[in-house]
Amino acid sequence: LVLVPPSKGRGGALFRRSRLLSLVRLQVDRLLSAGRGGEPGVPACEDQGAWDLEARLLERVAGARPDLHLVYVPTAAELGVRSTCLDGLMTLGGLLDLEVLDLGPSLAAACPEGRGAGEPCYYARDGHWTARGHRVVGEALAEWLGP
To answer: What's residue 35's pLDDT?
Structure first.
């Protein structure tokens, strides 16, 4: 990784140089678009360069933290569908011998967004979890990690 100072503009050069930052920006733009009534945000995770960068970062962390786990956090639009983001994370976990928890089944079963029941787990305007969403995720994590 090379630290390159951002340009004096609005970060355009920085986004052009960083695949990871570009991927984050894409996801934020999709969520904002969905909040304004645009297409629902199913993240695009096909950027192999971003996955390669993620793998290099996680290799460094995993060496220092043998208790590291990966958690897949789906958007509301990803509940009940197969996501390229989940596929990529599962592949990455396999390569680095890291466990991966998919929160999709827990959220889909408990939340109306995934055809479950009860109050919503995601806020419609910005895609963040509601109190119920946090509770569902907390219970899934507690069960997965054990005592």
So the answer is: 53
